[in-house]
UniProtKB/TrEMBL annotation:
N-terminal signal peptide: none
Gene3D superfamilies, per database record: 1.10.150.130, Intergrase catalytic core (1.10.443.10)
SUPFAM superfamilies assigned: DNA breaking-rejoining enzymes (SSF56349)
Lineage, opening ranks: unclassified sequences, metagenomes, ecological metagenomes
Biological process terms in GO annotation: DNA integration; DNA recombination
Domain Tyr recombinase stretches: 117-311
Protein name: Putative prophage phiRv2 integrase
UniProt-listed PANTHER family: PHAGE INTEGRASE-RELATED, PROPHAGE INTEGRASE INTD-RELATED
Family: Belongs to the 'phage' integrase family.
GO molecular function, one term: DNA binding
Keywords assigned by UniProt, alphabetized: DNA integration, DNA recombination, DNA-binding
Pfam families in UniProt: Phage_int_SAM_3, Phage_integrase
Length: 341
């Protein structure tokens, strides 16, 4: 039931979706979520919700919504569509609550079916082919080489890597401390944010090879103006557009399939699993909130050990003949009276 009177529906029946979005939903949504969440999702809403701008709230019917949903399905993944559809549905929830429409038609249509996403990654061999295509004598290419190498060998989320400062790196103990993330819109607008989850705050040990590379990179960076950010060549934090281009270009040079930036995180997890690292350690290194997230994402990459378990159980129990002599007990019907009694 609406929180407002039914007269509100009649009074506001001419309100367009755009007017409602700008004056009611966006201000309400902005105060309910974190700034980074709002900024990230605003770009998606600006891109896809204009489809409804010309319609009155009361005229947004199930066929109209379904037509929009079908158009999205031609170009985007189910996960992406589910997110943007969820925002649209949330906006109509508020319209119902304010008494501007009688029911949420988006709920009647329903969201697209959730599909299991394939985990894409580079194998160690593919990664080695890619990094072999960099000219590390060039300052800019060294920067991009270090960025790709670092993400592959640490599994950090892009935002975590963007926010990483040299002060967060302990060369003596060979560790990095992740305590923040970053929202990066452009070179003029970027800021620190809280980590994705509480488990995202963590300390990661680095291998000797990566430490050696980072020391060399720090010297090169300092000789070219320096930066407080680890992954930076011009004083600004790295950005996803640069890394996307680098991955595409060097994948082509190495004749290796393209992957998304986030797939470098998947690549790191795959590498750990191939090295026999247990799921709990993978969880802690990646900063997952719980083991279910780790196993739900990467469980299929663990080798099938069902037969191995059975083989290890074979012969583990040794049966020995007992030397104890037990007094034979009467096994007949004990309730039948013996003769003469």
């Amino acid at each position: 039931m609406n929180d407002f009177s039914k007269t509100a529906i009649r009074q506001n029946s001419t309100m367009t979706y755009k007017k409602f979005l700008d004056e009611y939903f966006l201000p309400d949504y902005k105060q309910r979520v974190r700034k980074r969440t709002y900024d990230n999702r605003l770009s998606s809403m600006d891109k896809h919700l204009p489809f409804f701008y010309r319609y009155k709230l009361s005229d947004i019917s199930a066929p109209i919504i379904k037509k929009w949903q079908n158009q999205l399905s031609k170009n985007y993944s189910s996960a992406y569509i589910r997110n943007i559809y969820g925002l649209f549905q949330l906006s109509l929830d508020l319209a119902v609550k304010l008494g501007l429409i009688t029911n949420n038609t988006a709920k009647i249509v329903g969201n697209v079916k959730k599909q299991k996403q394939k985990v894409d990654f580079w194998t160690l061999d593919e990664f080695q082919k890619v990094i072999a295509t960099f000219d590390v004598t060039n300052y800019y290419e060294l920067y991009t080489y270090v960025s790709i190498y670092f993400l592959f060998m640490t599994g950090l989320r892009l935002g975590e890597a963007q926010a990483l400062e040299w002060a967060d790196l302990d060369f003596k103990n060979e560790t990095i401390r992740i305590e923040k993330s970053m929202f990066y819109k452009n070179a003029q607008e970027f800021y620190y944010t809280e980590p994705k989850t509480r488990a995202s705050i963590r300390t990661i040990a680095l291998d000797d090879d990566l430490i050696k590379l980072l020391k060399e990179w720090k010297e090169k960076q300092d000789s070219n103006g320096g930066s407080k950010y680890v992954l930076s060549y011009n004083g600004l934090p790295t950005n996803k557009h640069t890394l996307r281009h680098v991955i595409k270009r060097h994948s082509n040079l190495a004749n290796v399939h393209h992957i998304k930036i986030h797939a470098l995180r998947h690549s790191h997890a795959s590498l750990l699993i191939s090295l026999g690292i247990n799921a709990l350690d993978v969880r802690d290194r990646l900063g997952h909130e719980d083991i279910e997230t780790t196993l739900g994402t990467y469980g299929h990459l663990y080798p099938h050990t069902n037969r191995e378990v059975a083989n290890k159980l074979t012969g583990i129990v040794i049966q020995q003949k007992s030397e104890i002599h037990r007094k034979k007990k009467f096994s007949g019907n004990q309730y039948i009276k013996k003769a003469g009694k």
